[in-house]
Amino acid sequence: MSKKAKSEVTDNSADTVMDGVLSENQAKLNKLNSSIQAAYERRRKIITDSKLYTYDKLSELYGGAEGQALLDAVTAEHTLIGKLTDSGMSYADIEGLVDNSDSADSKSGISSDDDVADGQTSFFENENPYAV
């Protein structure tokens, strides 16, 4: 066999080996990409479930408000608490206003136990989430 013929046989077998390796690697990559997509879908579902759970809890906290009414209530509270903290009140002071059972509500016959806002600011004990 001539040198040229040996070279062609070697080149052809190398091509076959390389094609097999490349095909195998491509199959592995495709499998990994599929696994990654599935993981991203599971992640997206968990995030969506968490958001829905949070929405439901906020809705409960605000007396069943939903949609724009819930957004308006949260925005109004956020603005009010921001103004109170900007004026120098601490979260403990603000919480004291909400939890005060000697408030005008108890004098009017409305029980503070039924107050939807009861304890809402306790989520933010040591930090100011309203600070910009």
**How many DSSP E strands?**
0
Please give the share of residues in helix.
55-70%
Poorly predicted segments: 103-124
Give the end-to-end Cα distance, rounded to a whole number of Å: 82 Å
Radius of gyration: 32 Å
For the biggest sheet, the summary is:
none
The total count of helices amounts to 4
N-to-C SSE string, H for helix and E for strand: HHHH
Mean pLDDT: 77
| Structural class category | mainly alpha
Described by the principal axes of the CA atoms, the overall outline is rod-shaped
What is the percentage of strand-forming residues? under 5%
Task: Kindly describe this structure.
The chain has 132 residues and is mainly alpha-helical. Helix content is 70%, strand content 0%. The protein has four helices and no strands. It has helices at residues 3-61, 67-86, 91-99, 104-107. The longest helix is centred in the first third of the chain and has 59 residues, at 3-61. The radius of gyration is 32 Å and the shape is rod-shaped. The termini are far apart. 1% of the residues are buried. Residues 103-124 have low confidence and may be disordered.
